[in-house]
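Researcher: Structure for this, please.
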Amino acid sequence: MKLRNVFAATALIGLAWVPLAHAQDIVPAAFATADTNHNGCVDLQEFKVWREGRIAVEGGPEAALLKSDPAAPAARLTKKFGVLDAAKTGCLTLSEFRGSTQ
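Model: Predicted structure, token format:
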């Protein structure tokens, strides 16, 4: 199996790569982790904290950028949040949040 096929069949959820077949089962748990005030939606601040935690664990160029310029990833996360927030409520529902795990 080629390496790209392995990545095509997995998704990064929370802090671990999991088979896509199980990813949909894990998204609600990742959502619950991100929703720190337990109000049923993830606001921008919760999203940033959750995603920056993932970036730190994942490593790579985005982690290096986070260390060298903390404002740069924050701006990108704000933009990504705006795209994911389809209803423009300022809060991600579980269905909107699913897009952040892909």
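Researcher: Any notable elements?
Model: The chain has one domain: 3-101. Residues 10 and 22 are 9 Å apart (CA to CA).
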